[in-house]
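During the second year of the project, the team shifted from modelling isolated chains to modelling whole assemblies. The rationale, set out in the original proposal, was that interfaces cannot be judged from single-chain predictions alone. As a representative example for this report, we include one of the complexes processed in the last quarter. Its constituent sequences, exactly as entered into the pipeline, are reproduced here:
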Amino acid sequence: MSTIQDIHDATVKGNYKEIMDLVKKAVGEKIPLESIINKALSKAMIEVGDKFGTGELYMPDMLLSAKAMKEAMNYIKPLLKGSEYVAEKGTIVIGTVKGDLHDIGKNLVITMAECQGFKVIDLGIDVDYGTFVKAIKEHSPDIVAFSGLLTTTLANIPDHIKAIEDADLRKKVVLAVGGAPVTRHFADMYSIEIYAPDASGAAKEFLKVVGKK
Ligand code: B1M
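Output from the structure prediction step:
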């Protein structure tokens, strides 16, 4: 079996103790960091989400997988800094919307964006309206991205946008949104420029924006 497959399987099983050695092995085998992230870690997390949805995995399994992914990324992130991906292309401010505590998907989006050379300011989870405004003033990002996993708290997105508009910052940033219940239609309803169904898609859309700037 390949090391990529081993990392994938260890992530699905939530084997966070084994993961670091496997990632080190893959790096030693000169497997590109992008492949470790896309073909092993991200793929595994999507599988874990699907298995949770069908009842094959339970919440504690999900959290162990997330821990495994975080361990792996702790090792990979410093290596990414010295790689060809990081020729700073722009700045993104991202956060999970107010009232929502989910961050695994958001963290994947951050990783993918960082792989593409973006500087990412992570505001965390349950982000207040004013926190986005403050971060835009402080960091002058190209893109402001909202992650939302709960149908209920997606209803807070218009208020996030209103806060940005009220601070006269809307025209200075491109907005992005994503998360399992988000659709292109939802993004269009609020004139949010970028919608992406997954982390790789988001990174691709982010690149298009800085290409246009
Ligand atoms: Co919660 N949860 N959860 N949960 N949870 C879901 C989302 C749910 C679908 C489960 C279910 O009922 N089947 C459901 C939401 C239903 C709905 O509203 N549509 C749900 C619920 C109801 C809840 C609680 C209310 C449960 C309760 O307490 N009764 C509660 C809410 C707490 C709160 O937020 N206020 C809750 C709590 C939790 C935990 C804290 C236990 C934990 C979160 C841990 C964490 O994130 N650190 C958790 C988890 C793990 C899940 C599931 C199982 C997995 C989510 C996940 O990480 N998926 C989830 C069920 C599921 O997804 N099948 C569920 C893997 C991840 C890689 O995918 O996050 O979708 P995802 O991200 C993707 C894309 O969506 C996209 O890219 C990512 C990768 O490709 N994406 C973006 C995400 N953000 C983006 C931003 C972008 C672009 C793309 O910007 C441009």
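The longest helix spans residues 59-81. The domain at 90-211 is CATH 3.40.50.280 (Rossmann fold).
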